[in-house]
Amino acid sequence: MNRDPETLFSHDAYGDALRAAIDALPEFDGPYTGASYDELETQISNTDPLPESGSGLATACTEAEQVLADSVDVTDTACIAHLQCPPVAPAIAAEALIAATNQSLDSFDQAPAATALEQRMVERLCSVFGFAEGDGVFTSGGTESNLQGLLLARDVALEARGIDPRRDGLTGAEDFRILCSEAAHFTATQAARILGLGESAVVEVPTDEDDRIALNALDELLDSFETTDETPIALVATAGTTDFGAIDPLAALADRTVEHDLWFHIDAAYGGALAFSERHKHKLDGIDRADSISVDFHKLLYQPLGCGAFLVKESGSFETLARDVAYLDPEGDGPPNLVAKSLRTSRRFDALKPYLTFRALGSDTIASFAEHTIALAAEAGDIVRTTPDLELATEPQLTTVVFRHTGAANPDELNETIRERLFDDGTAVLARTEVDGDVYLKFTLLNPKITRRNLETLFQHVCEAAATPEVVA
């Protein structure tokens, strides 16, 4: 390959690289090859990833193809373990454009058009979620967005006590408490640790029979704080729990945050996509009353990792993060200073992915994909109910189906073995989880290509794996 910078960094060279990448995209034959970690480690250890002299793009891409061949195929209908969606084709085109133009959204002069487009995307997202005076920023996903929401909650609570968190740190925050469902994503606890509040600052509220935060338990907890030296500062609701897809009673929770003066953050990384569906958006009633929201595009909105957004109801909420850096954006009027809204400095132009996708396909198409998988989850529940030795943990609510096989004296060991066997022989990639300490299997249905016939085949594989003599024994 020509090593001349004039050709390596040219339009033609980028085109050649994209064509080579397309040629190196593996033709998968199933959801996974079944290769073990030891096998992969041995294979890759025979290659020097940092050679002194290169072998050229064609050879390097051929080698990369050999590595990628042992990836899970997220487009395969039997790859249904996690919230790992198949990316829609327009988003792949956007990903290539993002890489080739390499804009960095930490200052206007590094990303002029990208700055304007991200801000426009944020405005439209705010309108979708009912934030008439809102603002936001693109993030890497729910982990970053949830951290940012609780950062703002902490700083608002400190400032209410006359403490400048940027200057004085966490003085006076020892009694702060963050409330969330016991089914909330672990990033709420992780954020509390990172923010210096400690994991013990997070108080988990029991869930009801639908795996939603139990209002009576929450009320009792809030009342109890009146007689303790603890101060609740934030309530984190979940719109789509990881295992069950449960959506907390958002409107009722909003009432309580007003009554008790709590920051209301909604983790809608999974379920936020319902806002685009006329059929399902009512399930998010009350989301417009949040102080902040996390929403991911790389789940039910079919974008490549990582692409999320963090939205706030009031644009002034970002003032606690305000940062003027002389070499980035000077003070004064002018283009938006996006680095003052983000936890990152260098940041990719990820807004281009949903922009190109929605412009190409329309929100109705994307919504139909989500609606299809929600309907399929309900059908999967029906199949489980009518299949001997299978039982549901709970009724499917979004696109996850949690179930187990009961045809053995030790169901935990049986279901562990079923999952491992299907993964090891490359038949299916399923997840495992625990419900009340018991092991269950989980389908996470994000792929719009999945049909009922696919589901029937998957459950058949589960039952066949459970019926082998070495498993039953």
Question: How would you characterize the overall build of this protein?
Answer:
Helices cover 40% and strands 13% of the residues. It is of the alpha/beta class and 473 residues long. The protein has 3 domains: 1-69; 103-357, Type I PLP-dependent aspartate aminotransferase-like (Major domain) (Aspartate Aminotransferase, domain 2, 3-Layer(aba) Sandwich), CATH 3.40.640; 364-472, Aspartate Aminotransferase, domain 1, CATH 3.90.1150.10. It has a 7-stranded mixed sheet with strand order 1-7-6-5-4-2-3, sandwiched between helices. A 4-stranded antiparallel sheet has the order 8-9-11-10. Strand 2, helix 9 and strand 3 form a beta-alpha-beta unit. It starts with a helix and ends with a helix. 41% of the residues are buried.
Give the helices and strands, then pairings.
Blueprint: H1 5-8, H2 11-24, H3 37-45, H4 57-68, H5 89-101, H6 112-128, E1 135-139, H7 142-160, H8 165-168, E2 176-181, H9 187-194, E3 202-205, H10 215-224, E4 231-238, H11 250-260, E5 263-268, E6 292-296, E7 308-312, H12 352-361, H13 363-385, E8 390-392, E9 400-405, H14 411-424, E10 431-435, E11 438-444, H15 452-467, H16 469-472
Parallel strand pairs: 2-3, 2-4, 4-5, 5-6
Antiparallel strand pairs: 1-7, 6-7, 8-9, 9-11, 10-11
Q: Estimate what percentage of residues fall within beta strands.
A: 5-15%
Number of domains: 3
Ends distance: 58 Å
Strand order of the largest sheet: 1-7-6-5-4-2-3
Query: Which H/E pattern describes the elements?
Result: HHHHHHEHHEHEHEHEEEHHEEHEEHH
Low-confidence stretches: none
Radius of gyration: 24 Å
Main sheet attributes: strand count, strand direction, barrel closure: 7 strands, mixed
The name of the CATH superfamily of the largest domain reads: Type I PLP-dependent aspartate aminotransferase-like (Major domain)
Number of helical stretches of at least 4 residues: 16
Mean pLDDT: 94
Oligomeric assembly: single chain
Number of strands: 11
The name of the CATH topology of the largest domain is: Aspartate Aminotransferase, domain 2
CATH class of the largest domain: Alpha Beta
Question: What is the overall silhouette?
Answer: globular
Strand pairing plus helix content: what structural class? alpha/beta
